Amino acid sequence: MSSSGAFKAIAPDAGPLDPAVVAQAAEWIVRLQYEDSPASRQDCAAWRAADPSHELAWQRMSALGQDLQAGTRGMAAPLAAAALEQARDAGRRARRNGLKWMLGLGLTAGLAWQARGMLEGAAPWTGLLADLRTGTGERREVTLEDGTRLALNTRSAVDVEFDARQRRIVLRAGEIMVTTAPDSAARPLLVSTAHGDLLPVGTRFAVRHLDQPGQPIRVAVFEGAVDIHPHGALAVQRVSAGLQREFTAAALSPEHPLPAGGGAWTGGMLVASRMPFEDFIAELGRYRPGLLRCDPGVAGLQVTGAFPLDDSDRVLAMLEQVLPVRAEYRTRYWVTLTRR
Which Gene3D superfamilies match (predicted)? Predict the structure, then answer.
């Protein structure tokens, strides 16, 4: 997947990229990892040549994935396919073997799922009562009446409250990406959270309830700027494009640069750059029903690459190929990554 002589090298720091283009580059990398045929390479070359931003995204993603590529270099396509099929077979066997165990859980399992949802800040009734919502692994995009585009990530819920004075989006759970639109009535747009309100300034930004003690809110700005108005006594803070920040009603974190591919989830990809394995599995687990955990013995490994969110079994099989780990399927809904 290296660049050929037909493509002009572009400096990695040549400017910001549209996250949608980054997601497309990630999709091409994943496709070539599993469908490395002359036709696929030709289609990829055509995409790269279609726009300078495509080539820049390709070069950045290729550099990002060097660690992953080193792990898969020389691996034949049939081997990859066999590994994927073995993972699926293991999952099917585990499901059959665990059926009686699952049936024996009864009401206890139901109560456990309710408690898990509450601990993750996404109680079942929160989603059911929201104007817009998504389930586990689901993503949804809508255009609001003013033209604002709203993308909901997995397990997310929002209310939309528009009146003659303001436009208000209330984040109840999960994560959203907001692309603002000018309003003919000049009403301000607010995004309200449990810890404060966000006032965008001509922008594209993501807001997420984090599954951490105190459930802080993360604001990631891709274009424009966002003013944070905490509910507490803290002063208003502005977050500019290319930065992200976390806050509660009583505290604000320092600013940090956006991670590479931070908005790639809108295109169905999870992008990692030397991400701790424990964090990667926790992130992937947001898109998969059941429990996905890693053993402490592999928590410190690092993951680099681009991975499809709509096929987590495929991602687990890929990890088994490039890292010293194996996926242990107790059932389809209870998987632990351990050292092999």
Answer: 2.60.120.1440
